[in-house]
Amino acid sequence: MVIKTTKMSYLRILHCTLCVKHGTVNLCPKSMLLKNCSSKPIQQLANISLSCHLSNNSPLTTQAVTTSTKKKSKNVPQDTRMWKETPTHDVKNNLVQYSMMLSKFRLTSLVVMTSMAGYTLAPAPFDLTTFALCTVGTGLVSSAANSINQYHEVPFDAQMSRTKNRVLVKGLLEPVHAISFAAASSITGLSVLYFGVNPLTAALGAGNLILYSFIYTPLKRISITNTWLGSVVGAIPPLMGWAGCAGGLDAGALVLSAVLYSWQFPHFNALSWNLRPDYSRAGYRMMAVTDPALCRRVALRHTGFITATCVGSSYLGVTNMWFALESLPLNIYFMYLAWQFYKKSDSGSSRKLFRFSLIHLPALMLLMLVNKKYWSSSKTEEHTDTLKIQDVNKHPEFAKGITVLPRRPVVAAQDSNIENNTNA
To answer: Is pTM beyond 0.85 here?
Structure first.
């Protein structure tokens, strides 16, 4: 009996070892002991274990391990939170990349480009320092607005294929990161515009930040008028650039702003046409979803407005007549694509209109810069002042009663005899 007990214990341990190795689950230790009381128990036990595994097609795990795993899974609570902690090392290693994603880098680049065009088109001396400060400030304010926009739209972005990979949706950043980034960018950007450029440019930037973040963003789920309000937001950066250079706004400042305002309708309406299922699922009130016919008509209508604005820019003194002629083929083809989109209303025509809009705007701004009517700089104005002073010095008999003011000279002639008679 002692030997049998030792042998049985040994066989039981051997059976458990084979179970772990071969993955057998439903074998009874007692039956194994009865079947393997022969001269070669180890070989027979291995054959039985392998055959049982093949017949049951069970995974290579033991019953004990499976049971313990099930017990552990039952005790672990499920994490149903919308926001989860982000590993600190991950944020530090990808801080620049995440910041660019929060700022919507491509959209911010387009905003900065239009602001630079407005600065360059203004009929005032070009100052590199002010130009750089205006560019940086505009970019920071735009980044802040886009960060706040993403903070508000996380539940809706998660339902759209185009926006489901944003950093807040994927949980790569927490909401506090987005708010902190927006606060730092807005404060820095507005300070740069106010102290480095002028108060008017800073006021335009602050107004655009509020308009985009707190009016346009919630309006997207309420009314289709959000598209018109969003176009106003896109038309303000050229005014910021113009005000940063000239120190004020005039009729010429409205030319590039009007082009930007009208350009956004064919651009965005063509983009949203193929995203109608996403916008509808997320609950956004877009023309392409609520009124498709109006969406196509508005896109076509504003391509005509762009053509008329380009023709009228020469009469406002912003460009010369060559710009009206050179921009005409570009605008006519833009109108043709909008007409195709209006008639066909399919994904192919909308995609062509959208892609050409990405080429149309940079090409149009480049033509405006090339055909700018008045080019001036501080050096040319100082040179003009010097020439006027030299002309006055050539006639000393008139030099006594003439005063030349530097920087946009104003010549005031004073007759000393008349002044003396008046005082008498």
So the answer is: no
